[in-house]
Amino acid sequence: MVAAETAKDKALRYAFGNVLCFFILLLIGVLAFSIRIFSVIKYESVIHEFDPYFNYRVTQFLTKNGIYDFWNWFDDRTWYPLGRVIGGTVYPGLTLTAGTLWWTLNALNIPLSVETVCVFTAPIFSAFAAWATYFLTKEVKGTGAGLAAAALLAMVPSYISRSVAGSYDNEAVAIFALIFTFYLYIKTLNTGSLFYATLNAIAYFYMVCSWGGYTFIINLIPMHALLCIVTGRYSPRLYIAYCPLVVLGTLLAALVPVVGFNAVLTSEHFASFLVFIIIHVVALAYYIKGILSPKMFKVAVTLVVSVGLVVCCGVIAILVALVASSPTKGWSGRSLSLLDPTYASKYIPIIASVSEHQPPTWPSYFMDINVLAFLVPAGIVACFLPLSDASSFVVLYIVTSVYFSGVMVRLMLVLAPAACIMSGIALSEAFSVFTRSIKFQLPGLSQSHQMDAGDSVSEPSGDVIQNDIVKTDRHDEPVKERPTRRNKKKEKENVDKASKPSIKSKIENRLLVLPLETSIIALFLLVLLGAFYVVHCVWAAAEAYSAPSIVLTSHSHDGLHVFDDFREAYAWLSHNTDVDDKVASWWDYGYQTTAMANRTVIVDNNTWNNTHIATVGTAMSSPEKAAWEIFHSLDVKYVLVVFGGVVGYSSDDINKFLWMVRIGGGVFPHIKEPDYLRDGQYRIDSQATPTMLNCLMYKLSYYRFADTDGGKGFDRVRRTEIGKKNIKLTHFEEVFTTHHWMVRLYKLKPPRNRIRSKTKKSKSKSSTATNLKRSGTGKKNPWH
Fold first, then answer.
1. pLDDT grade, residue 495 (50/70/90)?
2. SS3 for 401?
3. What SS3 state is found at 480?
4. What angle do CA 488, 489, 495 make, to 5 degrees?
5. In degrees rounded to 5, what are phi and psi of residue 710?
6. Residue 710: which region, alpha, beta or left (left: phi > 0; alpha: psi -120 to 50)?
7. In the list 143, 555, 725, 753, which could disulfide-bond 706, CB 3.0-4.6 Å?
């Protein structure tokens, strides 16, 4: 009777725990969504940054014309006169996701605009990412750790920076796809289910559609599989988790037009194929071991290893031949810049010029992951107690993501989920130890706790326990032995041991008990640490990452100032220029010009053609006449320049000018960076070089600038007076400057009519008269 009541109480407690967990997850999803809509509340529902405007424009085309026209869309408004095939050069995951949401809402008679759907796509998928983090961490260390990790990810500033409302970029859905793919891999690894393995391949396909960072997955999972094989942790579950992913995932990835045959031809994917061969050799060895005697097994292993080495050598030789035929050894420029942080600055300045491709500073780690940086080491230690296949994967994940985040600040986004998972595990284990210590020492709770020892929230799930039990059998299924008395006796002893509470476990639990005062103080400090993390995350979401870059604000003694110069300039272009006019600017503003002004641009943020970008950089670095000739050859009618010297906007074209010189000089050798530097320093004052003072960028930025402050010409960004104040333009004319002088538009003057000199006229008249005499005709030419 007592046993029945105890079982009933456990069932009720289990059901109540599941319901409570569901509501906590629901609240975490609401938190993840609501903390990202500060940008809409404080400003307005608008697309942020630069790249999202291209994604928004593509989504508009998709919803208006359909998916078939989207795949075949040739955009003649970008990269003039080359154009761009959109369907074959874009990762379609984000666009198709937002388009599907828009079609679904309209089918349900919820008439939202495409822009509204695009603005709120990132906050919605941030909630999905938090839930995926819960399931992933639960597979590693249990429900408590999963809830903690999900709550941390919902608020982590590094992820908020890429998923606020209006941040309509690929990472908005890609981080969810990344975490969900890892979860399905771990789930397959724990269960050995082919169903989850198939879902894993489909999730990987969605990741390939969404972001070029899918190469991180297809390299991290082979690294983990190889680690399991080397450390003797191979099992049939590892085979089921890995092989379908490589086969189905590669076939599905090749269906994405932007990837295509790169899924089997580039070096980023070769590691998965090499491990695929190795795991089959190991699987064959384990299979032979189960059906042969030990003596025959040694002979077979020798044969298998010999054949395997020959096959591996052949594959490696083919891969080496393919790699050697490429000047970059089969790697893309961005991948090489990750493996060699100095590669981009040496050979590809267009990659090094992007601010998010720079290495992060130490304060940026505290800004983006805050206290998680101190909890991650504790989480790594907890993963080794005990070490399982799932926990070894997350350890490998955090190690690789820390390295890549140190190379490129953009990849702090990949570090954020790993840091949240490790911190969630650390917090769960810490709360488990401290609460158990309190239960052991509080009267009335110690007896009940002894009955429920080991039944804490942070205990690993059943799949993980089953995983560890299977590993003790060396992950293979030997041939069944005949039942003997000795074997029966051993089985009986094992059953008795399992039925009786372990004395050793009780002793271990008792040793983990801390003094009551220490446990209470530690819990208070943990709660205080969490409160500090929440305050920092809310501040980062509300102040640091909510402002859209297209609308700038500043606070001063006389209140809030709003700078809406970008939209002002694009609106002027849209209303005061012809539809077919071409606009030249630096590539940062190409997407916005095309999407908001609906005008043709020469270069944009896709940066696929380095020569075309170098041509624009050369024009900006050249004297006025030479620049006019370059732009005139490209059929350019207007030039857009961003200037922050009046209001103190530091991300203007003068600060980016040296990258224009470097990129232009990489293609056109007559542009040399030392010509623009004075004693190795970049200057715009009276000590600037003549080449700098006479280049087009300098003239277009500082034209009439001295008139703004009574002739001084003081640049608030560079903190100095300009070196050339009375600038005159001969081949360009100013047509529009925004209210705060942040965007300036110039029009190319038409070419002058060629006036013949007097000597040429006299020669032409004499030659005409001679010809008339010879021909014997005295008729006058009516056109002279």
1. very low
2. helix
3. coil
4. 90
5. 75, 30
6. left
7. 725
